[in-house]
Specification:
The protein is an alpha/beta fold. It has a single domain, classed as 3-Layer(aba) Sandwich (Rossmann fold), CATH 3.40.50. It is 35% helix and 21% strand. The strands form two sheets. The chain has an eight-stranded mixed beta sheet, with helices on both faces. Helix 2 crosses helix 3. The longest helix has 16 residues.
């Protein structure tokens, strides 16, 4: 069920998949939304109650005036405090969400009982010479008068991928993406990546789920993250960076196995 709360007159929308189980906060990656965790919520069944917010600039949450790491972390903390779940909870995050999750665990250990980092690095990945892989966002349309025009404007690759996630504008004037391209660019500019010391700053049980062919998290960095942080388990899947989407069954199995140890 979808709910919303207000943070400084800005809407934070979140999905609570319900059920009698223990709560799990799930933070989505960039260019995505909380609904991406619907398959995980179904796989975990009644044992876990998945709560998945649309992070600022994504999904049905409002746009923000800034997109710093501190802002993302403050939103997640505000949501957990608003829900008043009776104590710290496990937090899972993929990519952007993984970075936000490990920073939340470091900054607010009172809110986080365990950490699941899905292919989020602790150092900026090496970028190839030439244009940035994110340059396409500068020209990506956020809205269009019709759904068909927006799908067409996204191009042959992104159009089909996002066709089902498009939503009408509140005033009925057109359709929009489930994320704001300019907000993503602002996030890349303001939030940056992370640091090993932040990863090491939390002491709760942790799991690193790693795509073996990830272009974002090299094997040597994943090995170092596990070796240097006590209480960290490791699960490797034969995917690129987009682990939850390229091997959903393997991803769900790794999450279930770790949660069963808590």
């Amino acid at each position: 069920m979808r709910h919303e709360m207000k943070i400084d007159d800005r809407t934070l929308s979140y999905l609570d998949f319900g059920g009698p189980g223990r709560p799990l906060l799930a933070l989505h990656g960039g260019l995505s939304e909380g609904a991406a965790y619907a398959p995980l919520a179904a796989a975990l069944g009644a044992e876990w109650r998945v709560i998945a917010p649309d992070q600022r600039g994504h999904g049905d949450s409002g746009l923000a005036s800034e997109y710093s790491r501190e802002g993302f972390v403050a939103d997640a903390a505000a949501l957990l405090e608003h829900l008043d779940l009776g104590g710290p909870v496990p937090v899972l995050g993929f990519s952007l969400g993984g970075l936000n999750a490990l920073h939340l665990a470091a900054a607010r250990p009172d809110l986080v009982s365990a950490l699941i980092n899905v292919d989020a690095p602790v150092d900026s990945p090496d970028q190839p010479e030439g244009p940035s892989p994110w340059d396409f966002l500068h020209d990506l349309p956020y809205t269009a008068p019709t759904r068909e025009e927006l799908v067409s404007g996204l191009g042959p690759k992104l159009g089909p991928a996002y066709a089902e996630a498009l939503r009408p504008l509140p005033d009925g004037s057109g359709w929009r993406l489930p994320f704001d391209p300019q907000a993503v660019l602002a996030t890349l500019a303001a939030a940056g990546w992370s640091r090993m010391d932040v990863w090491l700053a939390s002491s709760c049980p942790a799991l690193l789920i790693h795509g073996l062919r990830s272009e974002v998290l090299p094997q040597e960095q994943a090995d170092e993250m596990v070796a240097r942080r006590p209480g960290t388990a490791y699960a490797a899947l034969d995917t690129e960076h987009f682990v939850p989407f390229q091997d959903p069954e393997g991803f769900e199995a790794a999450v279930k196995k770790f949660l069963a140890t808590l």
